[in-house]
Amino acid sequence: MGKIIGIDLGTTNSCAAYFENGKIIVIPNSFGNRVTPSIVAFNEKNVVLVGEEAKNQSLINSIGVVTNVKRKMGTKEEIAIAGKKYFPETISSYILSKIKRDAEKFLNEKINDAVITVPAYFTESQRQAAIDAGTLAGLNVVRIINEPTAASLSYGLNLNESQNVLVYDLGGGTYDISVLELEDGVFEVKSTKGNNKLGGMDFDKRLADLIVDKFFEETGIDLSKDKLAYRKIFDEAEKAKKLLSDIDEIEINIPFITADKNGPKHLELNVTREQFETLIEDYIDETIFLMDEAIKEAGLTKDQIDEAI
Question: Is 147 part of the annotated catalytic residue set?
Answer without folding.
Answer: yes
